[in-house]
Amino acid sequence: MVDMVLLTKVFYHCSIYIEQPYNLPRGSPDKQHFCQRRQPSQGDRGSQRSWASRTASIIPSKRTYAATNTRISPTCIAQRRRSKPHPPGEKHMIEQPAQIHHSYLRLIGTMALWGGVPVVMKVTLSGLDPATFNFFRYLLALTILFPLLKYNRVPRIPARVKVYLMLLGACTLFPYSELFLIGLEHTSAATAGLLNGLTPVIVLLLGLLLRMERPTWRIIVGMLVSYAGVYYFISTGQPATGTTHGDIYGIFLVSLAVIAFSVFSLSNSKHNRNYPSLVVTTYVFLGTFLAFIPATIWDWWTQPAQHVGMANVAGILYMAVPASVIGYLWFSHGARALGAYKSGLFLNLVPVFAVGFSILFLQERLASRQWLGVLVILAGIVWTSIARSPPAAGSAESTDEIKQS
């Protein structure tokens, strides 16, 4: 009677696995090793086991599909042990130093690329209208960004967000790109680079005015020091490469451009947190490009024919590929690895690279008293960035405990 029950159980389970071979959970050991009989070990040889005990060793239980019910060979177990990956914590500890090292190098390289923008524009902009230059710059950048969107398969964003980003680019990046290049024609690359380095301070000032940032005495001191350095830099003498009146006009235009870019940075921060940065940058660039179309047509209609030389092509390639696409990718990688606060501190290197490149490649000279203004500006920028440091984890936890008590 017992043998009939066992035989019925064997046929029942065999019929289930033959008729429905995929009804087991995916990845379960029974599905992978079903009916793989273990080679009898030395202890099993010669042992007198009943037919029922030998049959139960290869048939999984009806109630559970535990791994103990499937007989797996010792060779398979050894292979699994050899191919076992590192624990997540151990693997993270091995890869973390190399990733941080590469992130620092990418951020420094990005600041060098962005610091070289005034120098490259000063050399390659001659003979070409700023609107035409920016038109081809954003056109080339979009031909790179849209294939990246398709390759990375980023999630879609609502249509209203796309329209908002395009309007944001047309209202902020369009005047920034146009005014910055026009102002660069009337001032030195070193001066433009220093003013462009004030972007974090102006963003903070706008945040204070709009009550998006809580003012502290350290932040206020850093802002006052930065603006005092700008005033001292302008009032103590101009670079030898430009006239006084023309340089003041260029400083005014570059300052307006920096304010426009600061508005863009402040308005863009919300969508950068909610959507991928690649999507946000692409649609902002698209709106900027569409805004440059009528401006470029107007320039072609009202001005004589412009000759595009190799220097202009080199400048367009630099602004489209290294300064826009590569710089964006490197900065995004560094921001993900180090965080927004630490990566933002590297922006203080942009005016340093700008002044260094202008002296090295353009032979621009600053008055001896202007170097003091440069140091004051950099000190104010660094102090303001450090003053915005987020609270430490320990202090945050203690604050929460005080509130709860």
TrEMBL record:
<feature type="transmembrane region" description="Helical">
    <location>
        <begin position="343"/>
        <end position="362"/>
    </location>
</feature>
<feature type="transmembrane region" description="Helical">
    <location>
        <begin position="368"/>
        <end position="386"/>
    </location>
</feature>
<keyword id="KW-0812">Transmembrane</keyword>
<feature type="transmembrane region" description="Helical">
    <location>
        <begin position="163"/>
        <end position="184"/>
    </location>
</feature>
<dbReference type="InterPro" id="IPR037185">
    <property type="entry name" value="EmrE-like"/>
</dbReference>
<dbReference type="Pfam" id="PF00892">
    <property type="entry name" value="EamA"/>
</dbReference>
<feature type="region of interest" description="Disordered">
    <location>
        <begin position="28"/>
        <end position="53"/>
    </location>
</feature>
<feature type="domain" description="EamA">
    <location>
        <begin position="249"/>
        <end position="385"/>
    </location>
</feature>
<protein>
    <submittedName>
        <fullName>DMT family transporter</fullName>
    </submittedName>
</protein>
<feature type="transmembrane region" description="Helical">
    <location>
        <begin position="190"/>
        <end position="210"/>
    </location>
</feature>
<feature type="compositionally biased region" description="Polar residues">
    <location>
        <begin position="38"/>
        <end position="53"/>
    </location>
</feature>
<keyword id="KW-1133">Transmembrane helix</keyword>
<feature type="transmembrane region" description="Helical">
    <location>
        <begin position="135"/>
        <end position="151"/>
    </location>
</feature>
<feature type="transmembrane region" description="Helical">
    <location>
        <begin position="103"/>
        <end position="123"/>
    </location>
</feature>
<keyword id="KW-0472">Membrane</keyword>
<dbReference type="InterPro" id="IPR051258">
    <property type="entry name" value="Diverse_Substrate_Transporter"/>
</dbReference>
<feature type="transmembrane region" description="Helical">
    <location>
        <begin position="310"/>
        <end position="331"/>
    </location>
</feature>
<feature type="transmembrane region" description="Helical">
    <location>
        <begin position="246"/>
        <end position="266"/>
    </location>
</feature>
<feature type="domain" description="EamA">
    <location>
        <begin position="106"/>
        <end position="233"/>
    </location>
</feature>
<dbReference type="InterPro" id="IPR000620">
    <property type="entry name" value="EamA_dom"/>
</dbReference>
<feature type="transmembrane region" description="Helical">
    <location>
        <begin position="217"/>
        <end position="234"/>
    </location>
</feature>
<feature type="transmembrane region" description="Helical">
    <location>
        <begin position="278"/>
        <end position="298"/>
    </location>
</feature>
<dbReference type="GO" id="GO:0005886">
    <property type="term" value="C:plasma membrane"/>
</dbReference>
<keyword id="KW-1003">Cell membrane</keyword>
